[in-house]
Amino acid sequence: MTRWIPAALLLGSAFFVSTALAAGEAKEDLGKHEYDVHCAVCHGPTGTGNGPYVALLNIKEMPDLTTLQRRNSGVYPYERVYDTIDGRRQIQAHGTSDMPIWGDRYMDEAKAGYHEYPDAPYMPPYYVRSRILALTEYLARIQAK
């Protein structure tokens, strides 16, 4: 009898979100939210590299995320940005990354959520991928013209 509860909650939540979006009450930008929560502290609120933690880091200069497209011959490097955010696939020739490995952190969060609702149709790798894709897409939108 309790097996239908997670599905009903998921369906009810989807209905509420879609109704709120249709009414114009909730318009959350998931990519911007991810950026504001996880990236702005180092890369700055606009992505130009002027975050409040820069002075605490042992690096010469924080990358300006608004010039990724310009620095890549006018083409936004989706795959490279995705892989950098994910961080789980290190390319040995590139050395180690100073940036946190967000793929591992997101996976830990996903697994924690999975154990709370074991009967729900939930796949942690899709959760991780959707968060990284939302952030990658947001960074594409803030590229300098």
Question: How would you sum up this structure, described in words?
Answer:
- With 145 residues, the protein is mainly α.
- The chain has one domain.
- The protein is built from 6 helices and no strands.
- The N and C termini lie far apart (56 Å).
- Mean pLDDT is 79; it is low at 6-13.
Task: Name the features.
single chain, 145 residues, mainly alpha, 6 helices, globular
Number of domains: 1
The H/E string reads HHHHHH
What is the total tally of β strands? 0
> How far apart are the first and last residues' alpha carbons, in Å?
56 Å
Strand content: under 5%
Please summarize the sheet with the most strands: none
**How many alpha or pi helices?**
6
Cα shape? globular
Helix fraction, binned, reads: 40-55%
Q: State Rg.
A: 18 Å
Oligomer: single chain
Uncertain ranges: 6-13
Structural class: mainly alpha
Q: Average pLDDT, to the nearest integer?
A: 79
Write the SSE topology.
Blueprint: H1 4-23, H2 30-38, H3 40-43, H4 78-86, H5 102-116, H6 124-141
Helix pairs in contact: 2-6, 4-6, 5-6
Quick structural summary:
The protein is mainly alpha-helical and 145 residues long. The protein has one domain (29-141).
